[in-house]
Amino acid sequence: MQKKIFFVLFLITLQSLCIAQSSAGAGANFQQRFIVDMPTAGILKSNSVALDADFFSDGGLMLRLTASAFNRLNFGISYGGSKIIGNGSVNWFKLPGVNLKIRIIDEALNFPAIAIGFDSQGRENYIDNLKRYEFKSPGFFAVASKSFKFLGYSSIHGGINYSLEKDDGDKSLNYYIGFDKTVGSDITIAVEYNFANNDNSANALGSGKGYLNAGIRWSLGNGFTLELNWKDILINKEPGNSRVVKLEYIQSF
Questions:
Q1: Among 68, 84, 119, 237, which one is least packed by beta carbons within 10 Å?
Q2: Total-model pTM
Q3: 140 to each of 76, 80, 91, 121, how far by Cα in Å?
Q4: What CATH number is given to the structural domain containing 176?
């Protein structure tokens, strides 16, 4: 029942809101909320809603609904599974994901924006015997983001996180960094490096190289942004790198 309710809410919200805007390129009206997978200090404007759909391997689909009631607070839910597209029985995620982000310091000329939060949604397929996703959820996190103008707009990001997905025996504190750059008014390219300190134990998936991910975002207009991501470029885990397509839709009341 909870699966049906979530997807119905997704469709209703998609049809009922108005004043759509994008988050890619120099003409973006909204801040980028993720580098590739890991969170930035960017948040939605007050009275806005974002709907994200990640399409990943094995017919996978993950939907995320995020809302902003205030300028400094975002909250949302997410859910999905593998084999949603294609043949065979759908393997739903064990639980819906929840996320909360609070901007505690706004960006100033010589100081970054800082946000703290919690996100229980991992990325791509859920692995039952390890009780984790292929790419672990951020869990509790703190992140700083600083933008600057150079041939368009660029931003650098640095964060620390502690995932609650630790049944593989790796409970380490983790770190990540990232960079994004606008190309014209509609395109943004991004690169992130997740040190994956929490994914390199004997029973974990990672081999100690960390996860290098890259993506390109393209504003399609009318609130839609298409994102193409190339993940695990260093082949930190088997079966190697993956390609993910993401569609974002943002609207304001």
A1: 84
A2: 0.87
A3: 15, 21, 26, 11
A4: 2.40.160.40
